[in-house]
Amino acid sequence: MPNSFTPLNMDRRLAVLVRPGDQRWLDAPQAPVRRWPLEREAPESGEVTSLVEYLPGARFPEHRHPNGEEILVLSGVFSDEGGDYPAGSYLRSPAGSRHSPFSQPGCQIFVKLNQFAQGDMTTLRLEPQQFSWQTLDQGMEQAQLHTFANECSNLQRYAQAMPVPLPGQTRGEILVLEGSIALNGEPLPAGSWLRVPSFDALRLTAAESTLIFVKTQRAVDYQLS
Question: In angstroms, rounded to a whole number, what is the distance separating the alpha carbons of residues 189 and 192?
């Protein structure tokens, strides 16, 4: 039978917007785990960005990360051999690492697989109380999670409605964790994921009591052709 798989949202020259309910959850073949792919290069390999839900008691077999794994715990408790990580935790496992993840109470996580920059061998296990929040503007705070070369992952928290400041000449993605943001006036509620080839032409506004995850890469490090 010919392979009928079609890569999902892998042309990063194109903007992608996924709202809650835009796709359906898919059962993982290895465990009582559901996955909601946002971008996917191949069925069970390659570059993947997805939302993943572990049902209570779910255990995933030991597996290796060929080019790293980045996780943000959205709800519940995510666990592996390194410990138990509650909602809000941020984890990085570099290329070649292995683990056998599980969740006793169940959890939802945001996962990026096989997308580490060359040479980035950082291991991180950060729980929310370990984040260092800095006030960047009245009503807005930022916690830097990880930087390497020209990539940056951070959290931004807004106590009032205001524009979202994003560096020029960058591409990247935003996951709305709490509250909502508006994209050129169009509201994006919690659970929305936005990936763009350039933030330069966008007008983003955060609502009051909003928390977002932002990942950026400077334009010097990629080509749009």
Answer: 6
β-pairing verdict for 33-40 and 48-54: antiparallel
Strand, helix or coil at 84? Answer: strand
What kind and span of H or E run contains 187? strand 186-189
Q: Which two tokens stand for residue 178?
A: 């709490």
**129 three-class SS:** helix
> Would you give the distance in Å from CA 46 to the centre of its chain?
16
pLDDT tens string 132-155: 999 998 999 999 999 999 899 999
Locate 124 and state its tokens: 């991180």
Q: pTM higher than 0.70, yes or no?
A: yes
Q: Are residues 181 and 212 in contact, defined by beta-carbon separation less than 8 angstroms?
A: yes
- CA dihedral 42→11→177→208, nearest 10 degrees, is -170
Q: Which residues contact 219 (CB under 8 A, 6 or more apart)?
A: 169, 170, 171, 198
Q: Whose structure tokens read 């061998």? A: 121
Gyration radius from the chain CA atoms: 17
Question: CB-based contacts of 201: which residues, under 8 Å, 6+ apart?
Answer: none
Q: How confident is the model at residue 210 (pLDDT cuts 50, 70, 90)?
A: very high
Residue 9, Cα to own-chain centre: how many angstroms? 15
How would you class 120 by CB atoms within 10 Å of its CB: exposed for 0-12, middle for 13-18, buried for 19 or more? Answer: middle
Q: How many residues does the structure list for the chain?
A: 225
